[in-house]
Amino acid sequence: MGHHSHSRSLQCRHVDAGSCNGCEQELNALTGSFYDMQHVGLDIVASPRHADALIVTGPVSDTMMTPLRAVWAALPRPKRLVALGDCAAGYGVFQGAYATRGGVEGSMRPPDVVIRGCPPTPAEILQGLTAVMDTLLEPSSFIDSQPSADLVEARRIPPLEQPRGDQTPGDVGEREI
Ligand code: SF4
């Protein structure tokens, strides 16, 4: 990225909800000197209380659903939910697997931003997280952090390669959060 402003920043909490670790490796690449995510105002924080956004990787395994919901509940508003990778988006190689919950949407609620890919590249992740920063700058985000279906659709980051055409997100379960 050519320039940045310190008026923009995004602190992110990341939860691995059953991924193969591929998405984590690409996310970790952002912290190196080449992509230098901190230089553009992005950072990964240890506590959800300090986070503006929750990044989820993996298809959301049965055992991770409750901890994931607890972390999401701990983020202060306004907050953003990011599905990173095809698994978290409800697609991917684990789609429909017996111990999974259909990604972020199937286990919790529709994500604000979806970054497709298996895994997405660091550049695609950077693009997606920058889009999250933009949504937090919108005045409406201070009134209601629940995304409308139109907003979710508008924020979807297309993958470089087309996904398999007939796939749809997995089962949609409870959505009390
Ligand atoms: S999207 Fe691909 S790389 Fe990411 S967790 Fe799923 S299988 Fe692994």
Automatic annotation (TrEMBL):
SUPFAM superfamilies: HydA/Nqo6-like. It comes from the Bacteria. Residues 20-131 form the NADH:ubiquinone oxidoreductase-like 20kDa subunit domain. Keywords: 4Fe-4S, Iron, Iron-sulfur, Metal-binding. Residues 154-177 are annotated as: Disordered. Its cofactor is [4Fe-4S] cluster. Pfam families: Oxidored_q6. InterPro entries: Complex_I_20kDa-like, NADH_UbQ_OxRdtase-like_20kDa. Belongs to the complex I 20 kDa subunit family. This is NADH:ubiquinone oxidoreductase-like 20kDa subunit domain-containing protein. It comes from Sulfobacillus thermotolerans.
